[in-house]
Write a structure and sequence with these properties.
The chain is α/β, with parallel strands linked by helices and 335 residues long. The chain has two domains: 260 residues, P-loop containing nucleotide triphosphate hydrolases (Rossmann fold), CATH 3.40.50; 65 residues, CBS-domain. Helix content is 36%, strand content 20%. It is built from 14 helices and twelve strands. It has a six-stranded mixed β-sheet, sandwiched between helices. A four-stranded antiparallel β-sheet has the order 2-1-4-5, covered by helices on one side. It has a two-stranded antiparallel sheet with strand order 11-12. Helix 8 links the parallel strand 7 and strand 8. The longest helix has 18 residues. 37% of the residues are buried. The N terminus is likely disordered.
């Protein structure tokens, strides 16, 4: 059965929910350039993981991303999607199997939000009822009201348009998503909200995702694995965030991650993971109360900004579960 027929006949999903991706000694050279844009890149991304490509300008991270969906072709090496070479695939068919989100969002201004989201399902030949149901499902998934479907991109905020861009990339339920600086052109508050929303989505959809950013803090927050590239498209280190922060491979990685990498580690853990201090005798006095999903970094900042005294951690019903202190948090850094 062809991919298109599978897309039309099988339930909600068009393809496998997630697929592994592998770069095998991938090199990209442009004519007239002294050195490759990407130089013998080899990494494996397990199905359902978020891999973040990060590095300074000109390190080849966006080039590596565009190689995956054959917007440009590799010079040497190979890329395997679900253990099959992308070079064996028709580029148009391949791109319909890969969600693609870019910084500029790229929505069609003359199409409604519903029609923008439906772009790939229409190309795959889905019927109108299935497309309509999928648009409704995705609007709910990204947290936008149903009445947005008849609006046009110009009538939405930047954050809303970015959400629609993610919905469009998810429309055919692809096994792989590529995201090139997707939140880079948005104000910091909206950006953090979208990051949190996307991480929530990922717990539900479990896609394989390759995510490009220049921001190491965003990489640490978003990635299951991080590939740090240096100029010339050379892989400096490929590791989970905690390993990258505790054991940088060399001085380049250490400098790129930053001298505050110990503090960055605190963003990887939450107060709910600590053995909290007993709240015996604690009285609520107007100080901030933390949820169990508050990062240790945010908790430390709040504690220090409120006189250094321990702060309470409360559950969803508002009951105090315990207290978190600077000493508890510093203990994590010594592990």
């Amino acid at each position: 059965m062809s991919t298109a027929n599978v897309a039309q006949s099988e339930g909600r999903s068009s393809y496998a929910s997630a697929a592994p991706l592998e770069f095998k000694s991938v090199t990209k050279r442009y004519p007239g350039q002294e050195r490759p844009a990407v130089n013998e890149l080899s990494i494996k991304v397990p199905a359902g993981d978020v891999c973040v490509l990060v590095g300074p300008s000109g390190c080849g991270k966006s080039t590596a991303l565009r190689l995956v969906n054959r917007l440009i072709d590799v010079t040497d090496g190979d890329i395997l999607l679900d253990d099959r070479s992308i070079q064996e695939r028709d580029p148009s068919d391949l791109r319909r199997e890969i969600g693609y989100v870019i910084q500029q969002i790229g929505l069609f201004p003359h199409l409604s939000i519903a029609d923008n989201i439906a772009t790939v399902p229409r190309l795959l030949g889905w019927d109108k009822t299935r497309i309509n149901n999928r648009v409704t499902e995705l609007l709910e998934l990204i947290g936008l009201p149903e009445d947005v479907r008849e609006r046009y991109p110009g009538q939405l905020s930047g954050g809303q348009r970015q959400r629609v861009g993610v919905a469009r990339a998810l429309a055919a339920d692809p096994p792989l998503m590529l995201m090139d600086e997707p939140f880079g052109a948005i104000d910091p508050i909206t950006r953090e909200r979208l990051q949190d929303e996307f991480l929530r989505l990922q717990t539900e959809i479990r896609k394989t995702i390759v995510f490009v950013t220049h921001d190491i803090d965003e990489a640490i927050k978003m990635g299951d694995r991080i590939a740090v590239l240096r100029e010339g498209g050379i892989l400096a280190q490929y590791a989970p965030p905690d390993e990258l922060l505790t054991s940088p491979a060399d001085d380049f990685v250490a400098r790129f991650v930053g001298v505050d990498r110990s503090l960055k580690r605190l963003s990887l853990s939450t107060v709910g993971e600590l053995e909290l201090l007993a709240p015996d005798g604690y009285e609520r006095n107007g100080r901030p109360e933390l949820g169990p999903d508050t990062s240790l970094r945010d908790a430390l900042a709040l504690i220090l900004s409120h006189g250094g005294e321990p702060l309470p951690v409360v559950d969803e019903s508002g009951r105090v579960q315990g207290l978190v202190s600077t000493e508890l948090i510093s203990g994590v850094l010594s592990e």
